[in-house]
Here is the input.
Amino acid sequence: MKSLISFPIPILLLYSIIINLAIAQSPDFGVYKCRNTANFTTATYKKNLETALGSLPGNVTNRGGFYHSTAGNNTGTPVNALAFCRADIGPEPCEACVNNSIPSLRRNCPNQKEAAAWYANCMVRYSDRNMIGVLDNWTFGEEFNLAMFPDVDEFNTALNNLTTRLRAEAAGGDSFRKVAVGNATFGADSLTIFAMMQCTPDLSREQCGECLSGTLTELRECCSGKVFGWVFYPSCFTRYSNELFYNDTAKLTSDITFKSRKKSNDSGTIYVVVAVVAVSVALIAIGVWFVLTKTRLKDSLSKNESTGFSTLVAKQKQTSTNHDTVGMDESVSVQSLQYDLKTIEVATNNFSGKNKIGRGGFGLVYKGVLANGQEVAVKRLSETSSQGVGEFINEAVLVAKLQHRNLVRLLGFCHESKEKILVYEYVPNKSLDYFLFDSINHGHLDWATRWKIIGGITRGLLYLHEDSRLRIIHRDLKASNILLDQNMNAKIADFGLARTFAADQTLGNTMKVAGTLGYMSPEYAMHGHFSVKSDVFSFGVMVLEIVSGRRNSSFYQDDIEDLLQFAWKLWTDGRALELLDPSVAETSYSEDDVIRCVIIGLLCVQEDANVRPSMASILNMLNNNSITLPEPQKPPFFLSKVSS
Here is the structure.
């Protein structure tokens, strides 16, 4: 298959600036890894953990951005913790990053003996075993976007040459700092890539080189040709971008102290402010353009829904060419996403029943293995599916634009003769409903896992509603459309019914209500009105299902006909904890977090869309225990009686 996406150069630059600034500046950005091989159950370990982590923020800036602490050596349950900051930032952002990451790490990994959190500026981790001088590769993470350089081969060659040089330079550092930065220019357009490689300074030269080699292997797997990539292990990371993301002070030698960099860090702040202003101006222009053209584009899609695929693609391309700016097709080269049917048939053993792994809203889903060994999920739309060409392109083109760790990644599609096929990344642990509502499998969902899943869905929806280039309304959020990866991280899937909004648009209307009863908001089910708040309603239903382990659509108890009313009754009676899944109630869990989730769920399913919280507010409620939550109003009663 060809490279996924080819951007016009001005759009590529704008998009990558937005992505890099979002990662560098967003306080919500964070990747958490909880090692589930062992959990702690004693108050002593918890106390030692809090002591070890609590000593990190005040000391890391006095140790060059790297600090290790130990607590509880005399108790038999010792805890080791360390903080590691990027070498190019000053002491204030380093301390702030470490300080902010610790509460989030503890919430995401509440009772694991080993865990790690990566933020844009720092990494914090802890373990019950020694970590100093140890090359750790028990886990890794990656971040990237789908924007592509025009010439992938030239980019890969340039990046390989650059990182080979930087790897040797970083590994050759001393016990104070092992870091290297640099850039390379390539191609006829003299494009530039910037890269940074850094190890924790406790590693030996050989260990650092081995760790960085591992990151480069992962970069080749995930990020070939992409304009931004970042792979991080517990002991090192490699990051590159087509935009300058590091301060020049990363070229410091080890005899210059960490605190001496404050002045140059200020210059980095000025750079960010200038970039933010530039992006803001560009986004305003984009918003104006979108308002002027969205009606024309909507008419075009509607008119062509029953026409051939090629005609619709041609019209989308023409729209993109005429305006040469961000629009419905600004980031997608449709041909670059195409698979041929023969490739798909070979990958799925000709759609063998043994390869079938599920059923989506418009067809069957198969597991496939491509010629290069990559596992994929193949969604084959049925010939009798109500999803037409317009809806098919909606999902293919829309999802290809989106890049977030809590969204299922679209790799491409196939459209030959009567076949309409979507090719996604393979997510091994099936869907949330497979675990949540199964009498046996729900035992795999302890409270820590459920809390992590709720947080993942929250971050994915926040990206769709506020942080992606267009505001995306999913319209069919439910447990079966939440997939779980090998680490039980939530990924939102199935965008066949999704709609896009302009930046200033808040409400849409449709005469054709589509979705799943039990999850639809009252304004959408009754009047066809949808907005981000209709997604919030669906999210609230899922939160109550995750807490209780019970499906809203099949709920019945005494004279109460749905889960929402049951949760409301328990909460108003002061018995919210009784909603908790009995299989979880018998294990370790946080009562405060359970009650918080019940209240958040009820806030989301209020009948008045205007009083439902935004996803940004919900994320804040989950991450900040000091926030006093408002009292929810009674949820609507009619949902179980809506006819299909």
User: Anything to note?
Assistant: DSSP finds 18 helices and 21 strands in the chain. The chain has three domains: 3-325, 338-425, 434-641. The radius of gyration is 25 Å.
